[in-house]
Each structure stands twice: as structure tokens, then as C-alpha cells.
Design brief:
Layout (H helix, E strand, L loop, with lengths): L1 H6 L3 H22 L5 H68 L12 E11 L7 E4 L12 E3 L4 E8 L4 E5 L6 E6 L5 E6 L6 E4 L12 E4 L11 E10 L6 E7 L8 E7 L2
Antiparallel strand pairs: 1-2, 1-12, 2-5, 3-4, 3-12, 4-5, 6-7, 6-9, 7-8, 8-11, 9-10, 10-11
Length: 275
Amino acid sequence: MIPSIFARQPLSLRKTAIVLIAALVLMWFDSKNSEWFSPVRSTSHAAMQPIYELSLLPSYAAHWASGSLQSKETLRRKNMQLESQLIHAQAKLQQQDYILAQNARLQGILSTTKPEQFDLNLAQVIGTDANLLRQIVVLNKGEQDGVQVGQTVIDENGILGQIINVYPNTSRLLLITDEQQSVAVTVKRTGQRAIVTGKGIPTSLSLDYVFKTSDVRVGDELISSGLGGRIPAGYRVGRISHVEDVQAANFRSINVTPTANFIDNAYVLILQDKR
């Protein structure tokens, strides 16, 4: 009777029942003596090992991605910290070099501009002015950070310009390369004074009001003199790159290569009076 009922069941159900019965029989034999099936058990575990390893791949990938992101973030923060320290150190060295030159030229008389006269507020360049004809950039520091109109801004190489507008969290910096900007300078080698004026391009400045008889040479370094009180003395402005005597003129035509980076400078320093 039972075989006839079993024969009438669907083929898939019969196969399942056979497998279950075989499994029960094997389990009964295994419970009697586990050593009989030890080789089979070892072989099956070995065959399943690749599947186990594949199942762990998503977990490994997640851990690796997490560790990689954390490492990159740590390196990024460390790099920003080191860059900030480097800019601060190089900015202070600028004035130290200036003071040494003044001491040698004036026989030990100290300059009135001290290396520690200012606090250095690190800021980031976050944009440019909408007027493409003006040499103006936007910084991420503003009134809440103590930024004021007229403060001088430098990078690790030299003077960039002055703050012309201040808002709660941002400010606008007019670069010395702008045609309406000028800086009183001193030729470091001779002490001669002159005026550097912007040309409206980030790669060149003009040294004005230098007579043809003046001792200026290609390669001479120009340092801010502090005359007029707008920009403090002792910071690098540029180097003379070309000198030409124009006929029917009393002054020389002199081009200057800026010392500061006006093309791709991401971080700058705002000089603020010590509190």
C-alpha cells in the first residue's frame, strides 16, 4: 500500500524523500561510529573552504575601504598642519633676512620692524572677483576672525596685497598685481627706494620712478620699505627681470617678476597687529 502511494507522488517530492531517508541513515551510522565518515567530512570541509572565503570578501572590502579613507583623511590633516607650519616659518624668515641686510648696511642699527610685530592668521583662497579685469581674490576669513580693511596679506614667498573689503566670514584681497595697486620698495643691494606698480597680470610688475643713472640690475631683490604706512617693511616683493633705457625719457623701463605666487596660491597669511 505504502509503495503504491509513494509511487503516485511527484518526482521532485520522491527525490527529496529519498535524500532525507539517506541522510537519516547516514546520520544513524555516523552516531554509531564517527570514524567511518571522517574522510568524507574532511573532504567536504575542504571543498567548502573557497565558499567560506568568498562569503567574507564583502566584510574584508568594507574594512579595507574604511581603513583607507581614515588613512587618507589623517594624511590630509597632517599635510595641512605641516603646510601651515611651513608658511609661518618661511614668513618669519623673510623679515629675519631683511633685518640682517639692514644691520650689515647700517652698521648694526636695528630696524624698527620686528619679526614678531604681527600675528599671522592663516586663510584660504576660496574664489576670485566677478570682475575679471581686477586682480582680486576672496578669502575664507572675515570680521569674526579679526580681519580688517587695510591689513597686508602675504604667502611664504612675499607680499600678495591688501584687504579692501571685510564681511562676517569672508574678505576681499586686492593683489599688488592690480593696475591700481602699488608698493613702496627698497632695492636690497643698494638701499635705493622706488615704487612697484601692478600691470593687471599675475606674472609681472613695473618698477617706476628709477632714473637712468640709478644703480639697478637684473636680479636685484626688492623689499617693501614701509613708506606711507600702508604695507609693513621687510617683506619680499619681487626681483628685477628686465631693465631698458627708453630714449627721450628720464626714467628707466624696468620689469619685475613677483616673488609671491599669484597663480595657484591656496593658502595665505593675513598680518594682524598683536593683541
